Amino acid sequence: MSFLLDNREIELPAGRRLNAIEAARWAGVEIPHYCWHPALSVVGSCRMCLIEVGFRDVRTGKITMQRRLAPACATTVVDHMVLVTQSEKVARARAMVEEQLLLRHPIDCPICDKAGECVLQDYHFQYGQKERRADPRPFSSRCRDLGDVTLFVDRCVMCSRCVRMTAEISGTRELLVAGRGTHEEIDVVPGFPLNNKLSGNVVDLCPVGALADKDFLYKQRVWFMNRHAGVCTGCATGCSTWVEENQDRVYRIKPRENPALNRWWICNDGRYDYPHVHDPKRLTQLQGAGTLDALNEQLRGAGRLAGVVSPFVTVEEAYLLCRLLRDRDPDALLALGPVPVVGDDERFPSGFLISAEKCPNRRGVEAVLAHFAGRVASFDELLARLDADAIDGAWVSGGYKQAWITDATARRFERLKLLVVQDLFPSPLSEVADWVLPGAAFAERDGSYVNRFDRLQQVCWAIRPPLGVRPEGSVLWGLAGRSGLYNAEAVREELAREILYFSAAMGLVPDVGVDLRGNLLAEHGTSENSVVS
Amino acid sequence: MSTQLDAALRSQIESLFPRYPTRQAVVLPALHLVHERLGWTPIEAIVELAELLGLAPSQVQDTLSFYGFFKQDRPQGRYRVWVCRSIACAPCGGEELLEHLCKRLGIRPGETTADGRVTLEFAECLGACDQAPALLVNDTLHGNMTREKLERLMETWR
Amino acid sequence: MSYERVLLANVEKPNSHTLAVYEAGGGYRALRRALKELSPADLVAMVKASGLRGRGGAGFPTGQKWLFLPKDFSGPIYLCVNADESEPGTFVNRVQMELDPHQVLEGVLLSCYATRAGTAYIYLRYEYGLCWRRMQAALDECRAAGYLGQNILGSRFSVNVHLHRGAAAYVCGEETGLIESLEGKRAWPRIKPPFPAVEGLFRKPTVVNNVETLCCVKHIVDRGVEWFRSMGTPPDPALPHDHGSFGPKLFGLSGHVARPGCYEAPLGITVRELIDRLGGGVRDGRKAKAAVLGGLSTGVISESEFDTPLNFTAPGRVGCLGLGTGCVTVFDETYSMVDFLHNSCRFFAHESCGQCTPCREGARWALEILDRIRAGRGRPSDLDLLQEIGDNLGIAPGTTICGLADGAAWPIKTTLRKFREEFQRAVSGRWPVAGETDPSSIFSTPGH
Question: Which string of DSSP letters, residue by residue, matches A27-94?
């Protein structure tokens, strides 16, 4: 199938049903739009995506253009179609829409949270007129509390994306359009506020500064922040995220589009799961008899060893830890740390899934443990072995964001000759440890996670850890006597070579991650690894 | 616990169900019934209506707010008066008629007299252009209005 | 000169709205005949052959619209009767439903038979209270007499007809706005295609027809295709897509005329004939200045254009959107066209559904400019600005989903072109008013 885009012949793979925005994007041309969003129904109302559409006669090659402009979002591209996105006529239409959207829009960009990432600003810069012909007027920034988010009523351009999101994606239908014509406003029914676990996404969908994230509001100008590709560690779904920081402080987390996983969304649990990173109660001081070299020495002479590998550490860290312990004691017991489970899985009408399992890497850690020990020992089994005096020294990795171990359980570790605890927060266990190694938070780690659908995603650190904290990988790298800085990618390559399960993670891991079941498909049938069907 | 929609009103609304293949289509006729009974369509009634129709409250509210007829600020007057000011009535004295009525009632369009008797509104074309200027009282048309006719009509608004 | 009254044959009879009077005048004869002698396909063919075009405004050929329905569709098909007559200046459907509701119902029943629609919804604007009561009573009479319900007149034809009341929103007269409203949603018109014939009410094939159009169907069955085609204007050979303008039409006449009212005449009579012969000329011996040609949306003509025939093609030649509803509103020499355009923009700004940016914002902007002009603070540049807003508004330039915006645009375009001097007077010499600065200068670049 082929079509003509601004006099360029574009080939589309047969059978792909794309609208003109998508088809143009495929060819590298951006058509501006407000109301259209790939995840939502097409309403064609903002009229920003107007283009010229025509057809080319296959035999004569003659092009006949339609007299009227057409919305690209509602134009399905078919064979021999002709799209013009760069004409004077299109430019005038875009300028008109821009001019009209600014008629009643408060130009309060200096105090608007969206400034710097506002589509209205960007489009006006690119497609707007040089002068304002309408009378300027005083403006207010009327605020309305919609529940989970704040609405700046007058900034709204009525794209209705947020309303469609609650109708079609979360299925909760809190938002509505109230009124008619220029009196239209986004609203909720009194007593029925916007309150669902996907509600934060309306802020991302909003092309202007109308819907504001209460958590982020007035905290930071967006142009001061850097964003880093991350993976949400809030549950076993492992959504792709952007971690946005300025000077080693995380200000917000946003979804990172991943068609194979979370598409455009993340849940509020994950979105607001960062304050613990900057919690002053975090462990930041190495406690123990001397330096890490001393620890290494102690490990060598500790006798029968055991390791607890937390489902919060990366695959690489799990691998390095297991390697280390097995080097020191070839029969070391390797157990999976406690797996936090809260409630049941929550699935939304769009297919979006919040997992009950509230950790990012159980699958990855299990695969590593199974590789070293042939099986995955449970935490309870380790406790039983402790009680039976079958262990002399243990290394417990934590990384838990909440309290995870009771006083009673911690006391069972007291009998050990050597207890190393590597964790984010002080716990009853760190109280009884010989060595306490402050661990990294998710935004400070390098490495990869494997979600519940066997998708491996790789992350790089977004911020530097607080003074005194060395990420687990770095500590283990040093203890293993490896030279230079911790190199998570080198460890992943090692893993991928050594462990069949990880073989698909060889080389460059794409932004969307890699399906580790890819090479096992023939054995296991089709893969069902998307949380959004 | 229902407070706004009593059993009779509910069964009146339910009797409309067979007319339409979806419950949502009942929204507009049901809102008319609610308005007829209560004199307005307060939020509490909307929430109950939504429940009766198996819809989210937002769906009913979204629809309601689109139409000029339904009001939620206060019960409307027993006499809702719409004065036409459209292209046929305006040149024939429609605007003056509206202004006169504003003065006589001491309210502006969109307002209700303090005694709750009359709500005054301007109307877009009432479809009575052959009888301009025209006004509508509840749903009864009064055409070829003059001040004298208006005075006589106002006497009936008790 | 007078014309035979067919559509208005009953209106002057006492109790014209009752079944007895309607039947005495030959009512439901066409329905009986059709059920006995004609197949639905015959009926569609007749309507197609008659050249009947929609009377609601767009003038789309009715038979063709019916033929767009999928063949042999097994699910339900709906007929929506557009009785949301809200076009400013228009009232003929009201006259029909108030005074001859059974004529409307017979047209509805015949059209259901032709299109195989099992359910018809009559979407009636709220303001038509008497119509509501009369149509309701007519439906009850019909049901009792066996014209409505299961196995009508002993045939295998069954149909339900329901009245559905609007709630004061002009855009419900747009066919997909009407459908959305009937579905219980805000009346935001849909993107077309899909057209209602393919995917309409409740996502099923749907025909939306105007009240007067359906009445014409009744008379086509009753009096034949030839009778219908004996009136009106044949297709213009110069226009390849002209379907002609056949049949009788109701013309509403209002504004500054001696005898406003609803008149029946063949399509193609001139505006002047309608005003002078049927309407008794301009009121109070004054001279006419302008007229709205077929409902506000079609725009205005000046007195010099009054010889324009009221058919589907001629209005376009004088810059109007079309025949529209065929309802003429006359303005005499004393009336200000600035006031008229202000009134028009006020209406469309109030009634814009708010979906498309150019209509939602453009109609209001035009109103604000006119507010300013009327307040004596107009600027010469306002006229070009208004013209530009008008020229870029609607489905004609492609900037909106529905034709409401075109209705907003045409009065702006036609009034400004035809009465520019009046507007120039309104904006000249009176600005800037002492003590005022031009606020727009803050943003405008000198010499730009």
Answer: TT-----SS--TTS-----S-TTEEEEEEE-TTT--EEEEEEEEEGGG-B--TTEEEE-SSHHHHHHH
Interval A67-109: pLDDT, tens: 999 999 999 999 999 999 999 999 999 999 999 999 999 999 9
Please tell me if residue A47 touches chain C, with a CB cutoff of 8 Å: yes
d(CA B91, CA C51): 37
Residues of C in contact with B19 (CB under 8 A): 160, 162
Euclidean distance between CA atoms A465 and A277, whole angstroms:
9
B–C interface: beta-carbon pairs under 8 A = 150
Q: Which residues of A touch C358 (CB under 8 A)?
A: 47, 96-97, 100
CA distances (Å), origin C171, targets A268, C131, C190 = 39, 20, 12
Query: What are the angstrom distances between the C-alpha of C362 and each of A182, C352, C388?
Result: 10, 10, 10
Contact B66 A179 (CB under 8 A): yes
Distance CA B102, CA B120 (A): 8
What's the DSSP call for residue B76? P
Question: How far is C407 from C344, CA to CA, in rounded Å?
Answer: 9
- The CA distance from C107 to C94, in Å, is 15
Dihedral sign computed on CA atoms, order C223, C226, C232, C238? positive
Identify the residue among A45, A75, A90 best suited for mutation to test binding to C, counting C beta carbons within 10 A and taking the highest. A45
* CA-based nearest distance B149→chain C, Å: 19
Inter-axis angle of helices A292-300 and A472-479, to 10 degrees?
60
CA distance A456 to A361: 9
Measured CA to CA, the distance from residue C372 to residue C355 in angstroms comes to 26
B136 touches chain C (CB under 8 A): yes
A101: closest CA of chain C, how far (Å): 7
Measured distance CA(B77)–CA(B93) in Å, rounded: 25
Summarised one tens digit per residue, pLDDT across range A168-225 is: 999 999 999 999 999 999 999 999 999 999 999 999 999 999 999 999 999 999 999 9
Q: Give the closest-approach CA distance of C134 to chain A in angstroms.
A: 31
Q: Is residue A421 within 8 Å of A396, Cβ to Cβ?
A: yes
Q: Calculate the alpha carbon distances from A73 to A56, C190, C216 in Å.
A: 21, 14, 39
Q: Could you count the other beta carbons within 10 Å of the beta carbon of residue A266?
A: 28
**Sequence letter at residue A41:** S
Asked if C203 and C190 touch (Cβ cutoff 8 Å), the reply is no
Task: Say whether pLDDT at C442 is over 80.
Answer: no
Q: Do C91 and B91 touch (CB under 8 A)?
A: no
Asked if A287 and A295 touch (Cβ cutoff 8 Å), the reply is no
How far apart are alpha carbons A278 and A441 in whole angstroms? 9
**Of the candidates A177, A251, A168, A172, which has an alpha carbon nearest to the alpha carbon of residue A216?**
A251
**H or E stretch covering C407:** helix C404-418
Q: Which residue among A179, A180, A189 sits closest to B58, beta carbon to beta carbon?
A: A189
Q: Alpha-carbon distance A445 to A449, whole Å? A: 11
Separation CA A243–CA A229 (nearest Å): 6
Please indicate if any CB of chain A lies within 8 Å of the CB of C191.
yes
Contacting residues for A321 by C-beta, under 8 A, at least 6 apart = A307, A309, A313, A395, A397, A472, A476
Q: What is the pLDDT of residue A184?
A: 97
pTM: 0.93
Is residue C402 a contact partner of residue A45, using CB atoms and an 8 Å limit? Answer: no
Q: Identify the H or E element spanning A298.
A: helix A292-300
Q: How far is CA A498 from the centre of its chain?
A: 29
Q: Which residue of B has its CA nearest to C187?
A: B66
Q: State the residue for tokens 């307005």.
A: B40
Please compute, for residue A466, the number of CA atoms within 13 A of its CA located in the half-sphere on the CB side.
Answer: 19
